[in-house]
Amino acid sequence: NLYRFVDGKGTLTHRFTDTLRLSTEMGIEYANRLLTGTVPKDRSETLAKTLLRLVYEKEKGFLALESSVFGGTYSELSDRAFWGGGANLEGEWTPVSRVSLAGGIGCLWLDQLEVPFHVDLRVKPQEELLFAFQGTYTVDTASYGNLWKEVGPVSQSDSPVHPKAFILGLRGEMKGIENRTFLAIQGEWQKRYNALKILPYDTGNEYFPLVKSSLSTYKVQVEGSYRVSPGILGSLKWTWLSGDRALLEKEHTWEGTIRVAPEKQPFWGSLSGLWVTNTGTSLPILNIGGYYRPRENVEISLSFEDLLSPYSEDRRTSIDPFIAPGFRILLKTTVMF
Q: How far is CA 45 from CA 37, 48, 49, 211, in A?
């Protein structure tokens, strides 16, 4: 399989006054998959979106009106193209310094009329404590380009897939020791429709079959960090997904990072570890990276990825039966214009 990906996005903003601004955004994503062999097969996807957003801001909140038009084309689906559009009204209000309320509601037309929304209530009983309640209903479009990047060869349905999700969540945050420590606990209930699940690899067709499912998932996430000094920060995060899981979601995920970034210095480094269930090996993924910025718009990075891979008795799998890349050394230069 050979893949090509091209993405582009542009944003333009005009401020009428200090409190009123208008912005527009246009983006396009192109992905192509070529299945080589005796009978080559070509698959492609093009997604485009344009957005117009008017925002009115005041000291205690903002109000925004947004409209969008989007669509996509596919080379091999029965429904080779789709289009949609929508409008959304959202805002945020902070009546007092320790309470804020944000929300939005809109209308969206795809294969039928949808009403996405989100609500976010935040309360700070003390400066070091925060409690939040969140509720959302979202409608999205599954991108085969992203699936090719994350999974590899997958089957395609006869028409575009539009996953929908209803989520209720609670979150608590606490800071301490002069804001050097941070702890957050979050719980969510997710009900998803048209969610994509992967079936075992089909050797005859040489792809992973995808099926649309309704999923009910409970998510618990605990994360914390400790700032040893102004330039050294350590963090740890644990995520548990109970119930149904989609695509590459795992039951347990542990992530840890130590970041060293001396103040007023052009270099910094990090040590990170990742461990998830069902990857073929019990060893975590351990990465070390270093970064150097000789100029404001130039960054040079050197990273060593999956350092423990050579010491594993079993090969790590990204998704069975495909083997993960393993130990790699990457040198990259980024120039920003």
A: 21, 10, 14, 19
